[in-house]
Write the structure tokens for this entry.
Amino acid sequence: MPDARVERLADVLVGYSADVRPGELVSIEGSLLATPLLVEIYRRIVRAGGHPLPRIRVTRQAELFYALANDEQLDWVNPSFSGVNEHVDRPDHRRGGGEYEEPDERRSGTAGSCGPGPPGPAAALPRACRRG
């Protein structure tokens, strides 16, 4: 049974903040830790007549990619993300951090500061996120 607080938050996000309308393509982004909320958001988008577009991130996704990727991989843009946001009627409009990371006192900055988004040109990354 879903938590009533999660259900109410999903109601506010879909019915008020995003104001989802029938036929709209709605991006849903989050980590696996947010699964209960993402499920309720998905449910409400469908009930509102929208088309949910879920994009789930795994823990440390960006950190691993930027630490391990070669130059070709850093320049590559995932075609599944290419142009998608141009068609999304209701993009993910949350602010702040990206994916969840375990706290590390040795590091400064915020969790997810390298960004959870799709890989793109390394030049677009903050200096601390670039390889080399």
User: Anything to note?
Assistant: The chain has one domain: 4-93+114-129. The helical segments are 4-17, 35-47, 61-68, 71-75, 84-87. The chain has a mean pLDDT of 74. The longest strand covers residues 25-31.
